C-alpha cells in the first residue's frame, strides 16, 4: 500500500515513512491510495470473528508489505488486550470504547501506533524520541501506549495547572521511558514549542525526533477495527452482556441482552466528534465493506463540520470551551483527509451532522441514567442527543443504532456526578490516582526545552 499527501498526489510514501513522519513534507496528511475492500468471506463473517482476527484482516492491507502477517499478528495481540463491548441501552446500542488503560477510545490508536513504531525502528540503534503536546486527554493515551516500548523515549508537554489531577497522573505518573514537562503557558505554547523543536538544528543533531499526534495514519487505521466488529455483531444480533467495568447498576436492564434477534440490517453509528479522526476511521470501515449504513457526526458547540454538511461551506474557527472538552476543536485536522477521499455530495450521503449544546448534553446524561440506569460520559451524551435529534427530525433509516461511548464516565465525574450521583470507578482509573507525579516545570521557551531534553 502506498500513501500520498492530501495536498500533492506526487508525494508518495510507504507505511513506514507515513507513520514515522506523521505529516507529509508539504504539510498535508497522508492517505492510503485506495481503501481496500474486505475479502467477501471476511465480510460475511464479521459477526462471528474474534476482535483480533478482525483487526488483522482490517489492518493487513494498509501495512503490507512493510509489516509481515506474522509481525502484525504479534502487534495486534499486544495492542488490543481489552474488549470493545456492544451493549444494549434502552432501544439503542452503545459501543463501549473505554475499556483500555486510559479509559478512552484513543487507547486503540495510541497502543497500535506505539507498537508499530517500535517494529518499524527495530533495526535502528539510536532511540526514537517522541515529542508531543497535549491539552490533557491525548497525552495520557500516548504515554500509556508507549510506556515500556523498547527503543522509544517520549516527552509530553502540557500546560501547567490546566490539566485535571487524573490527567496529570496519566501523563506524568508512569516514569520509565515517559517524561513530562509542565510548560508555564497555554496548550498553544506547548504546541509552538514542539513545532520549534522540529526545526531546531542543534536538537535535530542530538535526537531522532518524531511526533505522535492525532493525524498520524497509524493511529487512524486501527480505529476502523471496532466499527467493523460492531457492525458485524449488530447485523447478526450478537450483543454483548457487558464487560466487568460496564457502568450499569446491577440488575438494571437484566435480560435485555438475552436472545437478541439478528437485525439483518446495516448499522448506523453516532460518533461524538472533535478532530474527526474517529469518524474518518468509521468511513474507512464502511468503504471496506463492513455492514454500515451511515454515520451521525455529533459535535458540541464547535460545529464547523455540521455547518459544512448543511451548507457546503467550510469555515474553520477558534474553538469554544464546552463540558465535552476532548471535542473542543474548531478546525478539525482530519477534515482535510475526509475531503480528499470524498466529495461534498459523497460525504452528505454517508454522514449526517448535528451540533449539541452543553445543556442538551447534561439532559441526555440525566435521561439515560433515569430511563436505562446507564452512565454516559459527556462525549457519549453528545452522541446520544445527536442521535435523538436525527430521529425526531425523521432523518434516520431503520436498523440498529449504535452510539460510540468514547470515554468512561468516571473520567468526567465533575460533569456526570452532579447529575447522577457517584459513578463507579473502574480499577484501571482508580489505580492511576495512587501514582506519584514526576514532572519538570519549564518556561515556554525553546532554550528551556532544549536544556530539558
Ligand atoms: C478525542 C476524543 C473525542 C473526539 O474524537 P476525534 O477523533 O478527535 O473526533 C471524543 N471523545 C473523547 C472522549 C475523546 O477523547
Report on the structure:
This protein has helices at 15-21, 40-43, 51-63, 69-79, 106-120, 137-146, 165-172, 187-198, 201-206, 217-220, 223-236, 277-288, 304-311, 335-341, 344-350, 358-372, 378-392, 413-420, 427-432, 446-452; strands at 3-5, 12-13, 30-32, 86-89, 92-96, 128-133, 152-159, 178-184, 208-210, 267-272, 292-299, 351-355, 401-405, 440-443. The protein is an alpha/beta fold and 453 residues long. Strands 4-5-13-10-11-12 form a 6-stranded mixed sheet, with helices on both faces. A 5-stranded parallel sheet has the order 9-6-7-8-14. It starts with a strand and ends with a helix. Mean pLDDT is 91; it is low at 249-260. Pyridoxal-5'-phosphate (PLP) is lined by residues 104, 106, 137, 272-278, 326-327, 379, 406-407.
Please supply descriptive tags for the structure shown above.
alpha/beta, binds pyridoxal-5'-phosphate, 6-stranded mixed β-sheet, 5-stranded parallel β-sheet, 453 residues
Net shape: globular
The kinds of small molecule bound in this structure are:
pyridoxal-5'-phosphate
Report the structural category: alpha/beta
Gyration radius (Cα, Å) is: 21 Å
**Helix proportion of residues, in percent?**
40-55%
Distance between the termini: 35 Å
Query: Which strand order do you get reading across the main beta sheet?
Result: 4-5-13-10-11-12
- Overall pLDDT metric: 91
Q: How many distinct beta strands?
A: 14
Q: From the structure provided, what is the oligomeric state, counting identical versus distinct chains?
A: single chain
Number of helices: 20
- Note the main sheet: 6 strands, mixed
Low-pLDDT regions: 249-260
Beta content comes to 15-25%
